[in-house]
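Re: that backbone. Tokens:
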């Protein structure tokens, strides 16, 4: 932020740094958490590793 202050000062712009303290939220409450349904049921770690190799051009997926 200090570097930004130096950059904008010639234009008459001032900056302020605000460092808020801790505050309580409901972010980690069980009622506030929802999980998405798994979309790619056929994706496994082995299949993902195989796909990454194919994208890198080091290997072709089986059957292709």
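Recovered sequence:
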């Amino acid at each position: 932020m200090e570097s930004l202050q130096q950059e904008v000062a010639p234009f008459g712009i001032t900056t302020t740094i605000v460092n808020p303290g801790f505050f309580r939220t409901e972010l980690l409450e069980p009622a506030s958490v929802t999980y998405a349904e798994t979309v790619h049921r056929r994706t496994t770690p082995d299949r993902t590793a195989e796909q990454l190799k194919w994208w890198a051009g080091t290997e072709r997926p089986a059957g292709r």
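The chain has a mean pLDDT of 77. Residues 41 and 60 are 22 Å apart (CA to CA).
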